[in-house]
């Protein structure tokens, strides 16, 4: 298993969630004016958090039973669908659906990478990697809002969501081979055999 590829891929996934999380607040005033129903404004953020909290719990149980690969890739897929739903939204309820899907996906990704960290890396490697993943949250808090403002003013608020898709695609591609190897090891462990 290529640990470097896995680390970069997981970082790309964390960056995708962090960038979207930090950027949506900048784009939302414009999106709300465009879509109407501004009384639903707060739900754009609340539904994301509710979805994330729900799948963090469910994803943890799935990861315990089947390994971390299933929740991680399910998270990538659902998060991507949520980005497209939000990006193509022409009404506030559609944006709310997209944000809910993004929250569900991000919760699964977060629990997935945490369990991957425990399965694929030695205890002495984990603190350094946690620091790297924390940085992947800090950097978007500085660059996310200005980039989101530029996208919103230059293209449209829809691109704040679309712009995250390539990063998510890179994460999926880089993680594919290492996660396949990790899944094979988990399957062997589940059968009571040594990898």
Description:
The protein has 195 residues and is an all-alpha fold. The protein contains 7 helices and no strands. The protein starts with a helix and ends in a 5-residue tail after the last helix. The relative contact order is 0.21. The model is unreliable at 190-195 (pLDDT under 50).
Question: What features would you highlight for this structure?
Answer:
mainly alpha; 7 helices; disordered C terminus
Q: What is the element string, with H for helices and E for strands?
A: HHHHHHH
Q: Which class do the helix and strand fractions yield?
A: mainly alpha
> For the report, how would you describe the main beta sheet?
none
Strand content: under 5%
- The shape is globular
Helical percentage: over 70%
Q: Quote the average pLDDT.
A: 88
Question: How many individual β-strands?
Answer: 0
Our Rg estimate from Cα atoms comes to 17 Å
Task: List the uncertain runs.
Answer: 190-195
Distance N to C terminus: 12 Å
Summed up, the helix count is 7
Topology:
Blueprint: H1 3-35, H2 43-66, H3 69-87, H4 92-120, H5 126-154, H6 158-162, H7 165-190
Quick gist of this model?
This protein has 195 residues and is mostly helical. Helix content is 85%, strand content 0%.
């Amino acid at each position: 298993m290529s640990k470097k590829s896995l680390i970069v891929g997981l970082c790309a996934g964390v960056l995708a969630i962090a960038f979207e999380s930090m950027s949506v607040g900048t784009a939302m005033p414009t999106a709300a004016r465009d879509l109407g129903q501004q009384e639903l404004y707060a739900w754009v953020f609340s539904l994301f958090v509710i979805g994330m909290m729900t799948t963090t719990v469910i994803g943890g149980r799935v990861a315990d039973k089947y390994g971390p690969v299933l929740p991680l890739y399910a998270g990538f897929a659902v998060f991507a669908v949520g980005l497209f739903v939000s990006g193509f939204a022409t009404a506030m309820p559609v944006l709310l659906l997209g944000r809910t899907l993004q929250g569900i996906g991000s919760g699964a990704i977060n629990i997935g990478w945490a369990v991957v960290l425990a399965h694929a890396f030695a205890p002495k490697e984990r603190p350094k990697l946690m620091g790297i993943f924390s940085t992947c949250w800090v950097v978007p808090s500085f660059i996310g809002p200005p980039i989101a403002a530029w996208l919103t003013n230059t293209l449209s608020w829809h691109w704040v969501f679309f712009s995250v898709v390539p990063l998510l695609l890179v994460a999926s591609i880089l993680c594919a081979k290492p996660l396949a190897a990790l899944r094979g090891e988990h399957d062997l462990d589940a059968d009571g055999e040594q990898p």
